[in-house]
Amino acid sequence: MNAAEVARRAGVTTATLRRWVKDGLVLGAPRAAGAEWPPIAIAHVRIVARLRQRGHSLQEIRRATKEGRLAFGYVEELMPPIDASFTLRQAARRSGLEPALVERIFGMLGFARPERLGEQDVVMLEQMADILDAGFPLAAFLQLMRVYGQALAQIADAEVRLFHLYVHEPLMRDGVQGLQVAEQMGELTARLLPFSSPVMDHVHRRLLHHFVEQDIVGHMEADLGAAGAELGRMRTAIAFADLAGYTQLTEQQGDEEAASIVERFVADVTHTLPDEARLVKTIGDEVMLVSSDPAALTDWAVGFQALASGRPLPRIGIHAGEVLYRDGDYYGREVNLASRVAARAAAGEVLVTREIVDIAESHQEFERLGEVKLKGFSNATELYLAVIPELG
Amino acid sequence: MGVDIESPKEFKQVMDAVFTLMSEDDDMGPKLRDADVPQRFEFDDVDMVVNVRSGTEAEGVNLHWEWTDDISWEPKVKMKMSAEVAVRYFQGKENVPVAIARRRIKTGGDVKAALALIPITKPIYAQFRGLLEDRYPHLVA
User: Fold this and answer.
1) B140 with B3: CB under 8 angstroms?
2) Which of A4, A118, B42, B83 would bridge with A83, disulfide CB 3.0–4.6 Å?
3) DSSP state letters, B79-106
4) ipTM higher than the 0.90 cut
């Protein structure tokens, strides 16, 4: 690509491009007129153009270029460009989906209304149409798209942030100059990028295998027990666990140490959970867990507290009931109640509701605490304290 | 599913096999040696005790174990269980917190260290099951 073409693609005149090069805004640009531009410089021109559009001064951009702050933008160059040869209506027609549905799918995935779509987008839409044609309910499909969008956005965001914090920032701190930063990062990314999708695909398949097995067991046990719940609702045990005194700990020991403690806590939870339970999400120092087997979840909580030592100690609250499953998360009164029960627990305690006691009292010991008015609930809730076994 | 241990002698052979697997595993062995957590296992129904510690450089092994309490080191973690629970535990069929809550495993000492060993020893489950399927199929849980 020559200078004229680079300028055209960036949406600027050749004279502007020449001035940017002369002013040191574009690193890696060829010196000879009519010479071929390297990809790294082409990417940089696009970044400079974007920054100018956003109102940054030439002086600011020059300083950022010199310090290597814009170097991560080169990574973008390693990814295949997204073509845009279809209008939304054309893409919809080829995939056999309604334009409104295409728009909705993109919204669920976390994108704005797509004005133009590429060949890969259309292939994806065709595959989605096949899934719906095969009989997968639209309501469930759209929820799945939202979950994909949220999960993949979190992955992409983490990849960029971690690369920035652990690769880009240290290079800049070491005083490595702009072009070298870009080259080193480009080289590393080029080596890592091809592994990202196969790793995710493999992890996804392994997790799918695990959850399918869990679902089969859960179904069988549900069939043996209570009557079926309404569509989208399910019976489950919900637990919330967090570290008592975490805020104070952060004040005393600082963010990094507190974050390490949470990391260890979440790892301990993950490594020790029984097969029937899973971690739904972490919110700061809190974890939310669900299980198709309330007794197993309660036993785990009791055993986990028995194993807990040193400060800060966890506190755990468990409740079971019918919940609404939507977009990969669990909602409803029973979830809120479980959260309130956990908030009521003290360090080292497992607090449970009557529903849990009914299921687990055949093999676990509980002390009745009485009826307690929990925040946000009009009726009092009967709470029990699980007895933690003494270790030898 | 229960496992049917034929005799204390068979149980000892099986436990020796599992510790050998852990010690000789290229990944797990060095990790367990570096973790340096001496453990005491008591199998109350067969009245047996085994003490396990990291191997020394002179011994040239990752783990060293003796079927006695007459040892020259202090165990850091103590675990008490039946022989059947032990065989299930090393196959990954006994969740440690759940087994503690159900009083199938009693533990003491540095429980934090015990927790840290769980992810390290997880890969042994599949290997141990493979060994049992080959040589002791009646012990597969």
Assistant:
1) yes
2) A118
3) EEE-HHHHHHHTTT-S-HHHHHHTTSEE
4) no
